[in-house]
Amino acid sequence: MTTRSHVFPRHCHAELPTAVGGDGCYLIDQSGKRYFDGSGGAAVSCLGHSNARVREAIKEQVDQLAFAHTGFFTSDPAEELATMLIDKAPGDLDRVYFVSGGSEAVEAAIKLARQYHLERGDVNRRHLIARRQSYHGNTLGALSAGGNEWRRRQFAPLLVEMSHIAPCYEYAERDAGESLADYGQRVAQELEAEILRLGPDSVMAFIAEPVVGATLGAVPAVPGYFKRVREICDQYGVLLILDEVMCGMGRTGHLFACDADGVAPDILCIAKGLGAGYQPIGAMLCSNTIYDTIAGGSGFFQHGHTYIGHPVAAAAGRAVVRELLEQDLISRVQTQGAKVEAALRDRFGQHAHVGDIRGRGLFWGLELVEDRSEKRPFAPEQGLAGKLKKAAFHAGLICYPMPGTRDGRRGDHILLAPPFILEDSDIAFMIDCLSQALGEVL
Ligand code: PLP
C-alpha cells in the first residue's frame, strides 16, 4: 500500500500483508504468497475460501432482496435456515434468533434467560454463573460472562458482576490419582456449590463452552461432566446455555458439539462456522418452553439489532448448512480429524515442550510447557505463542495463538481449526510448517 492507512487495526504496530484472494484452504496476499488457513481465522472458514455454492447463494439473494427489517418482514432464507437448524438440533430447541456474530448470540442468550424468568414471575433470578478460562465475546455483557482475565482486566469497572467456577481442564487441574470420572463430578459439583452459595432462587443460568476454544485451546470436558451439569441445572431451575460459537457447526465432528456429550441445553449459541466467513451471522437457539413462556406472556423479546435475520447472511448460512449436510462434511471432519490427531501425536507427542495435545474433530490445541513432567508453563513475558504464530505465518501457515496466563495456571497454546475440505497433503503441510516454526522458536 502506498498511502497512509486509516484503518484502525487490532495491533497498531503490526505490518500486515493485504489479503487479496482465497483459494480452497489457502489465503493469498498481494505478493502472491499463499498461506494455509490452519485455524480458519479463529475457527470460521470451515468450507475454505472459495466455495462456489455459497458465493452463488449470496449473489442470488442480493439480486432478489438485500435487506428487509425484521420489525416488518420475515424472509425465506431466514425461515428455511431456522428449520434446517431445528431439524438437527438437540433436545427441544425449537426457535432460532438470528444475529450477526458470536458476542451478539451470547448477549441475546443472557437477556433471554433473564426475561424468561421475569415472565414466569421469578423476578429474583438474576445471577449468571460462568467458568474461569472461558471466552464468550467482547461486548460488555459477554465479556462479563467470560473468564479470560487478560481480556477483562482493564474493562472491569464496566463489567457486570458474575460468578466464575472452575473449567473442566483435565490436563492442568485433575489431581494425581483422581479418575477422569471423579474429576468431572468434582468440578461439576462446583456449580451446585455456587448455586447454593448465591441462593438457588437467585440464579438464572449457567453458561459454558462444550469444547473451550479461544481461552484454553480446544479442551473438551471429561465424560460425564456435562450430564452432571445438566442434572444440577434441572434440580435448581437454572437454565443451561451452551456457547458453541467456536466449537459448533460440525467443527468437532458433530453438527452441534454438545451431541458428543449427550446433553441438550435450554439455549444454544452458534456463529463462526454458520456463515463460514462468507457472511457475518450467528444465532441463538432456544427451547420451546422458553419461547412459549414469552409468547404467552408479554409476547415480545425485549432485544434486537438492526441486522438481525439479515436475508443475505441467512442465505449464506442456508447454503453453508446445505454444503455440510449434502457433502457429508461432518463425516469428513471425523476422518480428516483422526488423521490430524495421529499426525500431531506422531510428530509432537514426544516433543520436550509440547505438554498436551487435545481436541475433537478438526479442532486441536497444543499446550506448550517449559517442563513436561511438572507441566510448568513458559513465562508469559517470553511471548511464545505470538512468536510461534509469526514463525508459522512466515512458513505459510495460519494458526491461532493464545498467550499463557500471568498466574501460570495455563501455558501458551496454539489452536488448529482447518477447513473441513482439507486433503491429506494439506495435513502434511500444516504439520511440517508447525514443526519448522516450533524448531525456530524453541
Ligand atoms: N463465544 C465463543 C466461544 C467464542 O470463541 C467467540 C469468539 O471467538 C465468541 C463467543 C464471540 O464471537 P464474535 O467474535 O463473533 O463476537
Automatic annotation (TrEMBL):
Superkingdom, taxonomy of origin: Bacteria
CDD domains given in the database record: OAT_like
Gene3D superfamilies with a match to the protein in the record: Aspartate Aminotransferase, domain 1, Type I PLP-dependent aspartate aminotransferase-like (Major domain)
Keywords of this entry: Aminotransferase, Pyridoxal phosphate, Transferase
Enzyme nomenclature, EC number: 2.6.1.62
Annotated GO MF terms: adenosylmethionine-8-amino-7-oxononanoate transaminase activity; pyridoxal phosphate binding
Cellular component annotations (GO), alphabetically ordered: cytosol
Required cofactor names: pyridoxal 5'-phosphate
PANTHER family for the chain: AMINOTRANSFERASE, AMINOTRANSFERASE CLASS-III
Family stated for the protein in its record: Belongs to the class-III pyridoxal-phosphate-dependent aminotransferase family.
Protein name, UniProt field: Adenosylmethionine-8-amino-7-oxononanoate aminotransferase
Organism of origin: Tritonibacter multivorans
